[in-house]
Amino acid sequence: MLLDIIRKRGPIKTIGVLGMGYVGIPAAALFADAPQFTKVYGFQRDSPSSGYKIAMLNRGESPLKGEEPGLEELLKKVVDAGKFSCTSDFSKIRELDAVTLSIQTPFLNKEDLLPDFSALFEGVRNVGRNLTPGMLVVLESTITPGTTTGVARELLEKESGLVAGKDFALAHAPERVMVGRLLRNIREHDRIVGGIDEASTQRATELYSPVLTIGKVIPMTATAAEVTKTAENTFRDLQIAAINELALYCEAMGINVYDVRTGIDSLKGEGITRAMLWPGAGVGGHCLTKDTYHLERGVQVLGKDELDFPKGEPSLYVLARRINDFMPIHMFRLTKDALARAGTPLNGAKIALLGWSFLANSDDTRNTPAEPYRDLLVKEGAVVSVQDPYVADYPGVAMVPFVEEALEGADAVVIFAGHHQYRTLDAKVIRNLSGKKHPAIIDGRNLVDPDAYIREGFIYKGIGRGDKNSHVIVE
Ligand code: SAJ
Predict the structure, then answer these.
(1) Is the CB of 247 under 6 A from ligand 1?
(2) CA 121 → CA 102, 134, 154, 177, distances in Å?
(3) Which terminus of the chain is more exposed, N or C, with fewer CB under 10 A?
């Protein structure tokens, strides 16, 4: 009986974390800082691309880019105390009471939206080969619902000859961390903990409780935990699509979506909420762009003959993805229409694309919606110069360091990411830099005041700004 084996083994003392990335490193440091645990190993393949992390981490240095408040101090503390060390020797897993896997699951390619689980499953095999009775295995990566009780369980059992739920505990505890607040998120967010059975859920709760400060453990089954993680991002994507669709409607009806948003958002109290998010030039990143498709694949596999759904209708969630992915195309349409009003053909037009990263005030460019937008312009023969204060280079994209350089001779200025630096752009200065009588300004993130630009002779277009998009051109 698993509970007996676990009772014989006693409380969790030693832990392994596979995947020294932005999820695994803070998780390992927090486990090591908990007095209940005596030793934590961080496991990292000694590969050409990331083997360097091993020595860095053993010096108490973080290989992560960007500011992570408290992380370096915490790493130094646990390394100096001998409670944390990083290794590529997976056989050390045999000594441990619990192992977590935080290995990324990117898409193989955008077309078929199939995830690449190869790195994660290699980690699972490494655990399987060193699995001992009574150990707890927890998957933290975002995975398709059904993976924990399916492929992951099969791989662990095949490699170890042990049986999940009988000889070892198995659970899914999805990460909910955001770059820039990793430690705070792990400590303060509630932690979804889903075991393949009651004993596994309890053992995983014992593992995570010590690192939570104001967060609490929310227990459920492993599959419910997988659906929770993918659905929480699916719902955010859906909320964004809902306001993006409303923005397109408002443009068509000649009204300002932000007035409507303020109006709807005023309906508050007595549990009434509308969760109004913000329309924009598109949705990028590594979470919202893929988690919907994990959820969809999960229900296709797990619910294949059971799903009762309106015949022939597309999934609302996939439709939301399509609406969000349409926004860069809409931005292209706004650009083309604005240039047409100035009598400038797209072919040969000079476009200043401001903001390449997928998120305001961030350097993260993963799945940026600016890329499909730029591709459409380049295909039409436009000359695009990209500027982003947080991004110095990007393969195949001509990037300029200063916004003035991008604006030099520009026929159109397009704001794609809501970086705060772009809020203070001066219409008069931009017009002089562009040297054009009627330059275009396309605002994808509602950063600028339309009238300030229209007064300067600009041709203005803004997402959701049906009240301004057909303005009279000021000579
Ligand atoms: N976006 C909009 N309108 C909005 C909000 C976002 O167009 O109202 C766009 C952003 O410009 C960006 C994309 O959506 O291109 C994603 O933005 P995001 O704020 O959701 O940032 P992410 O992708 O880093 O989402 C992460 C997720 N966290 C985890 O998966 C652990 C998500 O669950 C969080 O809700 C989100 O951070 C957050 O709230 O910061």
Answers:
(1) no
(2) 11, 21, 11, 22
(3) C
Q: What ranges do the domains of the chain cover?
A: 2-215, 221-475
Architecture of domain 2-215: 3-Layer(aba) Sandwich (3.40)
To the nearest 10°, the Cα dihedral for 216, 220, 225, 227? Answer: -130
Tell me the CA end-to-end span of the chain in Å, nearest whole number.
83
Token pair recorded at residue 274:
């509308």
Tell me, in angstroms, the distance from the centre of ligand 1 to residue 183's CA. Answer: 18
Residues 6 or more apart whose CB falls under 8 angstroms from that of 182 comprise 22, 23, 25, 26, 64, 68, 71
Evaluated on CA atoms 63, 210, 33, 8, the torsion sign reads negative
Residue identifier of the C-alpha nearest atom 31 of ligand 1: 176
In CATH terms, 221-475 corresponds, of 3.40.50.720, 2.120.10.30, 3.10.580.10, 3.40.50.300, to 3.40.50.720
- Region 141-148: mean pLDDT is 96
The dihedral built from the CA positions of residue 259, 263, 264 and 268, taken in this order, carries a sign that is positive
Query: What confidence tens digit (pLDDT) does each residue in 363-387 have?
Result: 999 999 999 999 999 999 999 999 9
Q: Is the CB of 287 within 6 Å of ligand 1?
A: yes
Going by C-alpha positions, the residue among 196, 112, 210 that lies closest to residue 153 is 196
